[in-house]
Amino acid sequence: MLFGGIVLLIAFGGAHYFLDINTLLGIIIAFVLWLIGAIWGLSERQIPNGDFKGQLFISEDSIKINQKTYTWTEVNNFSFKLLHFLGQELHSSTIEYFRFPTGGPAYSAGIDNYIYFTSRNETIKVFFRIESPKHKIDFSTLIKELYLKDRISLEKAYNGLNLPYEEIQKLKKLKVEVKRQISN
Questions:
Q1: What is the pTM of this model?
Q2: Which of 54, 61, 127, 147 could covalently link to 66 via disulfide, CB atoms 3.0 to 4.6 Å apart?
């Protein structure tokens, strides 16, 4: 509605200006559509197409998707992306209504996170939902543990978690310390 309203507003405004056609009613309708779309977007959640059915469980030993288990020795090319949790604001701005004219969802549905890997000659990509900030922290901690136990590479860990440079350096130092303790 938001962008349709803008397109109609431009079309009716252009017709009024260039063709000298009285389109005041059309301009009012287009403006109302734009206004409704913008207000609606302020409280809307991001909901991509599709349904989530099943369960995903990741541990230090394996990945379980529904009733199928993949051990880490079977998993190749593991990558993931950890983005938003349920209800997280998608647009952070110092001005609360800065994004009002652009529209779009205000909050995440938390379902844009995924894992991707190959195993047993099949490629698996599973989207999952993060329910809360605590679940996001738990997942981040698990990924760091998997890195420390050589289940995933450092590059996959910091890319998927969007870690800043300082966090990457801490993780590298921690890995060196863990290896030192194991060798002693």
A1: 0.67
A2: 54
Q: Residue 143 and residue 166: Cα distance in Å, rounded?
A: 17
Structure tokens at 96: 């609360």
- Residue 59 makes CB contacts below 8 A (sequence gap 6+) with 142
C-beta of residue 5 within 8 angstroms of C-beta of residue 33: yes
pLDDT, one tens digit per residue, over 116-169 is 999 989 999 998 988 899 999 999 999 999 999 989 998 998 889 988 999 999
C-alpha distances out from residue 27 to 3, 4, 103, Å: 14, 12, 19
Give all strands of the β-sheet with 62-65 in edge-to-edge order. 56-58, 62-65, 68-71
Give the C-alpha distances (Å, rounded to integers) separating 77 from 22, 117, 163. Answer: 62, 5, 20
Strands (E), the chain: 45-46, 56-58, 62-65, 68-71, 76-81, 107-108, 113-119, 122-128
For residue 8, give the 3-state DSSP assignment.
helix
